[in-house]
Amino acid sequence: MAPTKSSQRFEDLLQFFESEKAKVQQPIAHPDESVNRLSDKDRKNLRRAAVLIPVTRVNADSESHIVLTVRSANLKSHPGQISLPGGTAETQDVDEAATALRESHEEIGLHPQHVEVLGPIGEMAMPSGYRVTPVVGLIEQDLEFVPCPIEVADIFEAPLDLVLDPDAYQHAYVNYKNEKRAVLELNYGEYRIWGATAAILYHLAREV
């Protein structure tokens, strides 16, 4: 039986992390150069953070997906937007993967023992004052997630073959600090994935 597009993308992902290319992590860029300049201005003083990109394994009954969250409307930062589980590094975190796993456990109830970490994919400087490292991890299908009601309004899964298709991303514009800024967006059903989350996933798609 010929491999499906999803299973091929999943294999491409695994092969990427086995390659030398994965060891040379490239900075993750914003689509707007003015935001890049603003973010990079004081990079070394930015607070460290990490997010997890949870990828479900392919099996005979289901294709691979990436788990995403909808942020609570009550949050002060980016309410209602689509995000990856993660947050600020704490002193007990030994590395970025530890931060991503701890925060994912807190936000969506994903236990670290259920995640096979493949590795980080670079670092993104944010104008909000953070350096965010995305970490890719494999999880089994049909895990039960428990959203933290304070932070997470919803949890959903987007197809891996869509997320890893660079041509699926579009440019859009938002107002940031009274200026028009370019952003990337990826649409899946009722969900609009945009901003830093879309930039991170687009970077992964380009790398793979």
Structure description:
This protein is α+β, with helices and mostly antiparallel strands and 208 residues long. It has helices at residues 5-18, 33-40, 96-108, 160-163, 195-207, and strands at residues 47-56, 65-71, 82-83, 86-88, 116-120, 124-125, 130-139, 152-159, 170-176, 179-188, 191-194. Strands 1, 4, 5, 6 and 7 form a five-stranded mixed beta sheet that branches. A three-stranded antiparallel beta sheet has the order 3-2-8. The longest helix is centred in the first third of the chain and has 14 residues, at 5-18. The relative contact order is 0.22. The model has no long low-confidence stretch (mean pLDDT 88).
Task: Describe the secondary-structure layout.
Blueprint: H1 5-18, H2 33-40, E1 47-56, E2 65-71, E3 82-83, E4 86-88, H3 96-108, E5 116-120, E6 124-125, E7 130-139, E8 152-159, H4 160-163, E9 170-176, E10 179-188, E11 191-194, H5 195-207
Parallel strand pairs: 1-7
Antiparallel strand pairs: 1-4, 2-3, 2-8, 5-7, 6-7, 9-10, 10-11
